[in-house]
Amino acid sequence: MQDPKIQRILGWSIGLGVLLVLAAWPLMGAEHVSGVAAGALVGSLNFWLLARMLERMLEQTESGRGGLAVRFLMKYGMMALLVAGLLFGLRVSPYGFALGVSNFVVAIPLGALGLLRTAGKDDTDEGEGT
Q1: Contact (Cβ atoms closer than 8 angstroms) between residue 33 and residue 99
Q2: I need a surface site. Which of 44, 76, 92, 130 has the fewest CB within 10 A?
Q3: pLDDT tens figures, 31-42
Q4: DSSP state of 91
Q5: CA separation for the pair 64, 126 (Å, rounded)
């Protein structure tokens, strides 16, 4: 994954996931911590896989995209099995899991704000020399 925008959002997601895990222990109790951690990891994995697949899809020609579409659908099937295994097999807290997965609701805008801030610096730097 080479795109710095994706890396920035993924970094925010992982950082927020760590903060959520640390906050879940005193606020929600120990039984929810594993759910928050599992949700944050699954959310980050899902985002990373989705970004990687989209990069590959954009790089390929029209004829080579059919196999990628099948892998795209398989990814969602595997993610569903992973989530089911965590919730029903390992019995992680569904509330904690939902909280952990939802950190992208905050990570994406924070990543975008960072990009806007860097773009604003680039614009002002270019304008000062003229």
Answers
A1: no
A2: 130
A3: 899 999 999 999
A4: -
A5: 41
pTM score: 0.77
Min mean pLDDT across 34-38, 87-91, 100-104, 116-120 is at: 116-120
Write the DSSP assignment of 62-103 as a string of letters: GGGHHHHHHHHHHHHHHHHHHHHIIIIIS---HHHHHHHHTT
Tell me how far apart the alpha carbons of residues 39 and 24 are, in angstroms, rounded to a whole number: 12
Radius of gyration of the chain (CA): 18
* pLDDT band at 130; cut points 50, 70, 90: very low
Taking a C-beta distance cutoff of 8 angstroms, is the pair 53, 76 a contact?
no
Amino acid at 23: A
* Residues in the chain, overall count: 130
Tell me if 53 sits within 8 A of 114, measured CB to CB: no
